[in-house]
């Protein structure tokens, strides 16, 4: 497959996640009011999706190692489209949560396979650079999603905003069906046997490199999830911004994420993976600290939060490609299982954070800013201790 097609394919597969999370955020207060639902229920439309996304990867990963990436992608993307359409037609908040959760489970196949395909095709170091190119594509999708979501919700209603991810998934499904060629290595016949699978998972979880890069991805995704889950309520209901302005701000934030992925590609040849991650961790921690301190001193303003988010998202553009490549690096024969475990751990952290946010949204910016500070501290500790010690991605 041509290199340009591989990057496009990875961007679309990974893009199924920001499309289904970012695009509906401007409509979240609207659909909450439409159903007469609580804020906790509204958070479940996101946290439930992400928990199912994480858990499902534990199934999709070993299946893709055994039967190949292609059949899993076709099955998962087909379910993603159907569940997205059903969510848009849901008659109650309870059914919306059900269908969004099912869509998250289906999405696990697309995202997990994309990460595994990177390991199928590239060495660990080149995988980090290839992933940064694909994540630039995700950044473009994430940049367009909030603005598109706000305009769609404003003019066509929140149900249309929920239908768009199904259309995106259908386009991706057609592309995979027509152009993708299998990349998985030859399968081991006993790879799905419970004892063999348990041994594989235990080997992955004990690996110091996997631990180092998993903690990094958990921290950086935790910060992103905190922003996604809390920003619409904080920006619109606490700070009084319009949905359109909120969408523009989130799109602008995504531009800096794209900038981070480009910076990542420039830094890797010069500094290597470990130093690149450590330098970006300092930027993350600076952003988290600048976000958290003013509200603790009684200052609630978009002008203190937005610049801090810019720093966090630029660093996120460095941490994600390095972290995702690093978690699968030691396991070329079990990239699906390693990708699945990493995805599961990230989503467990996101689900826990969603529950914490749902219980603490108190009409101030503190849940958002304190959450960002917490995760950026975790990022710094992971980068400066674990990745520094065990994060060498040798060419092999």
Structure description:
- The protein is an all-alpha fold and 396 residues long.
- The protein has one domain: Up-down Bundle (Growth Hormone, Chain: A), CATH 1.20.1250.
- 85% of the residues lie in helices and 0% in strands.
- The chain is built from 13 helices and no strands.
- Helix 1 (3-22) runs antiparallel to helix 7 (158-179) and helix 6 (124-156) packs antiparallel against helix 7.
- The longest helix has 54 residues, at 243-296.
- The mean pLDDT is 87.
End-to-end Cα distance, whole Å, is: 21 Å
CATH class: Mainly Alpha
Structural class: mainly alpha
Query: DSSP helix count?
Result: 13
Topology diagram in text:
Elements: H1 3-22, H2 28-35, H3 39-67, H4 69-88, H5 93-121, H6 124-156, H7 158-179, H8 194-206, H9 208-238, H10 243-296, H11 302-328, H12 335-360, H13 366-390
Helix pairs in contact: 1-5, 1-6, 1-7, 3-4, 3-5, 3-12, 4-5, 4-7, 5-6, 5-12, 6-7, 6-10, 6-11, 9-11, 9-12, 9-13, 10-11, 10-13
């Amino acid at each position: 497959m041509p290199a340009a097609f591989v990057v496009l394919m990875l961007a679309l597969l990974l893009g199924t996640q920001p499309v289904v999370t970012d695009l509906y955020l401007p409509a979240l207060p609207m659909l909450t009011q439409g159903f007469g639902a609580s804020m906790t229920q509204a958070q479940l439309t996101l946290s439930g999706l992400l928990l199912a996304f994480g858990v499902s990867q534990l199934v999709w990963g070993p299946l893709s190692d055994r039967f190949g990436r292609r059949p899993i992608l076709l099955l998962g993307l087909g379910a993603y489209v159907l569940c997205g359409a059903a969510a848009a037609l849901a008659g109650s908040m309870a059914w919306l949560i059900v269908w969004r959760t099912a869509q998250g489970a289906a999405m696990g196949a697309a995202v997990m396979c994309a990460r595994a395909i990177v390991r199928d095709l590239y060495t660990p170091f080149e995988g980090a650079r290839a992933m940064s190119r694909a994540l630039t594509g995700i950044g473009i999708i994430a940049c367009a999603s909030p603005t598109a979501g706000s305009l769609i919700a404003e003019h066509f209603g929140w149900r249309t905003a929920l239908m768009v991810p199904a259309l995106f998934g259908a386009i991706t499904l057609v592309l995979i069906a027509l152009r993708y060629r299998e990349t998985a290595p030859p399968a081991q016949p006993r790879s799905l046997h419970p004892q063999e699978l348990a041994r594989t998972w235990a080997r992955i979880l004990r690996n110091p490199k996997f631990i180092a890069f998993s903690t990094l991805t958990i921290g950086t995704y935790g910060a992103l999830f905190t922003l996604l889950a809390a920003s619409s309520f904080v920006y619109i209901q606490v700070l009084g911004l319009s949905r359109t302005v909120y969408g523009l701000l989130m799109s602008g934030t995504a531009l800096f994420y794209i900038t981070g992925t480009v910076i990542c590609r420039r830094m890797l040849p010069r500094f290597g993976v470990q130093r690149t991650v450590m330098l970006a961790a300092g930027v993350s921690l600076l952003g988290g600290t600048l976000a958290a301190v003013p509200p603790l001193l009684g200052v609630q303003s978009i002008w203190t939060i937005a610049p801090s988010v810019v720093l966090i998202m630029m660093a996120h553009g460095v941490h994600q490609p390095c972290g995702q490549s690093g978690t699968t690096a030691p396991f070329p024969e079990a990239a699906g299982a390693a990708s699945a475990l990493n995805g599961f751990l990230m989503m467990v952290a996101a689900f826990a954070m969603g529950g914490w946010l749902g219980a603490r949204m108190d009409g101030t910016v503190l849940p958002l800013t304190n959450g960002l500070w917490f995760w950026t501290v975790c990022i710094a500790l992971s980068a400066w201790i674990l990745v520094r010690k065990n994060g060498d991605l040798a060419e092999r």
